Amino acid sequence: MVKICCIGAGYVGGPTMAVIALKCPSVEVVVVDISVPRINAWNSDHLPIYEPGLDEVVQQCRGRNLFFSTNVEKHVSEADIIFVSVNTPTKTRGLGAGKAADLTYWESAARMIADVAKSDKIVVEKSTVPVKTAEAIEKILTHNSKGINYQILSNPEFLAEGTAIQDLLNPDRVLIGGRETPDGQKAIKALKDVYAQWVPEERIITTNLWSAELSKLAANAFLAQRISSVNAMSALCEATGADVSEVSYAIGKDSRIGPKFLNASVGFGGSCFQKDILNLVYICECNGLSEVACYWKQVIKVNDYQKSRFVNRVVSSMFNTVSGKKIAIFGFAFKKDTGDTRETPAIDVCKGLLGDKASLSIYDPQVTEDQIQRDLSMGKFDWDHPIHLQPVSPTSIKQVSVVWDPYQAARDAHGLCILTEWDEFKRLDYEKIYESMRKPAFVFDGRNVVDAEKLRELGFIVYSIGKPLDPWLKDMPALA
Ligand SMILES: NC(=O)C1=CN([C@@H]2O[C@H](COP(=O)(O)OP(=O)(O)OC[C@H]3O[C@@H](n4cnc5c(N)ncnc54)[C@H](O)[C@@H]3O)[C@@H](O)[C@H]2O)C=CC1
Ligand SMILES: O=C(O)[C@H]1O[C@H](OP(=O)(O)OP(=O)(O)OC[C@H]2O[C@@H](n3ccc(=O)[nH]c3=O)[C@H](O)[C@@H]2O)[C@H](O)[C@@H](O)[C@@H]1O
Asked: Which ligand has the shortest distance to the CA of 69?
């Protein structure tokens, strides 16, 4: 029986291994982590992450050929294939701070593998890493290899949160990079055999190591660039009276452009887009490609611009001050169908409003008060370290309350900001919400989920990203 061990039971390690276990009943899969609470949660009825369809997959396989354990060394030493899916945050100190990937967790995992391995191993990079990481890992593993043969493969993950199970069951492609030696090719085949149990052969792409590593960074950079492009257009739409949804539809009909990923928003979030682009920028700079670095940096600058543009709209529309005013925040997760708040645009928007002394009442169906308070008090990039290394108990911010009911969040509020596109926000009783709010009542839709015209008929003043402006807002221009 092939034995797989995955180091890192997070958003990638957990779902990915669950699907491998589901589709490969003859493979034993053990997911290990240094975080005891995380592993306990994986072994309970309340999984540590919210992902549609995940519970069912885990229920089918757990205890059969899928196991979760904190006994990292035992399972690593017994495995034939070791996936490494640990955090690769942005460095906050020292060389490359604010840009380069922090490979502390990767390096410690590699050193541990070297310490405990007693047989040949295929080590698979599942985390997103800088190009040439495999070379560094190879050095760590082979430096004191005790005659063990290590093959390093790059097998980046392309799943998106909220659709992870569907993405894993039916991926556009699986990418495997390896050495072009006979041993390297043998290792590629071993991993390919695992995926080939359910992924059609033509969707399994094999490349050299550096192409696979770079393809992951490039894919995220291209995706994020698309959002920054449409968000940049949204600003121009507001200035000219064009409607960004109509523009997106019209350009998306061109088969060379395509319709996906063209939704204007308050900005992209998530644990990876910003981190991976910063990493790409750093690699370009290290290779003397400053023009290329500047090009990609602009994607993040436009994203930051979009978030501050939104805050400025809120403040300027409400007579240039939100001091002491209650603002309801609908949605805190970085996108719908996930409880993940890493790098969510809601953090920057809330901080911007708090900076203008607003008092916030936040509702998100999947995010807890503790998480929101942590996010609003954590330093930049701190969120991407293992949970036991994050700041412990944040001092809670008094102007922030978190409620489990959107109607309660909106009661007596002057304005309402929609920051996540949860489907339920489309179905709320906005008449009831309007009645309970202070007047004039404002809605700032950062995701274009509500029907602005209907809300205007109810009496709201509505701002929708990239849409023709409400006459009220036209008179109150917001400069970012
Ligand atoms: N979240 C996502 O949707 C995607 C993430 N990625 C990449 O995958 C990697 C992992 O991301 P996530 O799963 O989101 O992170 P995560 O933070 O959810 O999970 C990482 C886990 O690794 C554990 N860990 C860290 N060092 C360890 C060690 N030495 N031994 C054992 N466990 C250790 C942590 O305790 C944590 O539970 C990152 O490089 C990320 O860029 C790639 C594609 C999608
Ligand atoms: O490397 C990663 O971590 C992953 O990053 C993204 O996945 P994810 O961040 O989970 O979610 P996306 O659906 O890509 O959304 C990212 C952000 O962009 C925003 N977005 C997305 C699409 C769009 O049209 N407009 C828009 O503002 C979302 O609301 C969200 O805040 C990529 O889509 C995955 O392929 C990749 O594996």
From this structure: 1
Give the residue, 3 or 382, on which the prediction is more confident: 3
- Cβ contacts of 81 within 8 Å, gap of 6 or more: 2, 3, 4, 5, 121, 122, 124, 190, 191, 194
Ligand 1, atom nearest to 12 Cα: 13
267 alpha carbon, closest ligand:
2
Would you say the CB of residue 184 lies under 6 angstroms from ligand 1? no
Taking 3-state DSSP, the helix, strand and coil percentages for the chain, each rounded to the nearest 5, stand at 45, 15, 40
Closest atom of ligand 2 relative to the 270 alpha carbon = 9
Q: Based on the fold, state whether residues 380 and 257 are members of the same structural domain.
A: yes
Identify residue 425 by its one-letter amino acid code.
F
Provide the whole-model pTM: 0.95
pLDDT digits (tens, 9 = 90+) for 413-439: 999 999 999 999 999 999 999 999 999
Percent with pLDDT over 70 in the chain: 96
- Strand-pair partners of 462: 443
334 within ligand 2 shell (Cβ under 6 A):
yes
The tally of CA atoms less than 13 A away on the side-chain side of residue 219 is 17
Bridge-based pairing state of the strands 28-32 and 66-69: parallel
112 with 76: CB under 8 angstroms? yes
CA 298 – CA 305 distance, rounded (Å): 10
* Within a domain: 209: no
Determine if ligand 2 sits within 6 Å of the CB of residue 422: no
Pocket lining: 446 vs ligand 2, CB cutoff 6 Å = no
Residue range of the domain that includes 31? 3-199
CA of 236 to the centre of ligand 1 (A): 38
Give the closest residue (by CA) to ligand 1 atom 32.
33
Q: Which of 272, 276, 338, 387 to mutate to test the pocket of ligand 1 (most atoms within 8 A of CB)?
A: 272
**Do 190 and 281 belong together in one domain?**
no
Which ranges in 54-163 belong to alpha helices (H)? 54-61, 72-78, 104-116, 133-143
pLDDT tens, residue by residue, 249-290: 999 999 999 999 999 999 999 999 999 999 999 999 999 999
Which region holds residue 288: left if phi is over 0, alpha if psi is between -120 and 50, else beta?
left
Number of domains in the chain: 2
Q: Rounding to the nearest 10 degrees, give the CA dihedral for residues 409, 49, 97, 279.
A: -110
CB 234 within 8 A of CB 469: no
Assigned domain for 479 exists = no
Check if 85 has its Cβ closer than 6 Å to any atom of ligand 1: yes
| Catalytic annotation, residues | 272
171 marked among binding-site residues: no
Residues 187 and 335 in one domain: no
Q: Indicate whether 206 belongs to any domain.
A: no
Q: Is 240 annotated as a binding residue?
A: no
> 83 and 226: one domain?
no
